[in-house]
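Postdoc handover notes: sequence design on the structure in folder B. Input tokens:
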């Protein structure tokens, strides 16, 4: 037999951890760590934003860095740039308003 060793439940250790994790997310009482990090999924990468609005990652970077106008709101985490999903939607809606005026 190859792969991860099985536990007494007959599941490999990684499979058992995944199953336990999925069960813990069904619990309505989140731990403090889970509560603090629950909003992190709303942050998008440059590639996510590019795919969402159907432009190149270079276009997103240029507007996020302020090299092109209008400036797209983002946050810089070291060498990484992240975007709040709602901020991206608001940015696009503002651009739509400029074209409809």
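Designed sequence:
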């Amino acid at each position: 037999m190859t792969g991860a060793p099985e536990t007494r439940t007959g599941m490999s250790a990684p499979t058992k951890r995944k199953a336990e994790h999925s069960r813990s997310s069904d619990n309505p009482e989140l731990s403090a760590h889970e509560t603090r990090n629950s909003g992190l999924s709303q942050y998008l990468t440059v590639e996510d934003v590019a795919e969402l609005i159907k432009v190149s990652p270079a276009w997103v970077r240029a507007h996020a860095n302020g090299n092109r106008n209008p400036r797209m709101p983002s946050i810089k985490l070291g060498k990484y740039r992240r975007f709040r999903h709602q901020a991206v939607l608001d940015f696009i809606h503002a651009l739509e308003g400029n074209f409809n005026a």
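Context for whoever picks this up: Residues 42-100 form a domain with the Multidrug-efflux Transporter Regulator; Chain: A; Domain 2 fold (CATH 1.10.1660). Don't rerun without checking with the PI first.
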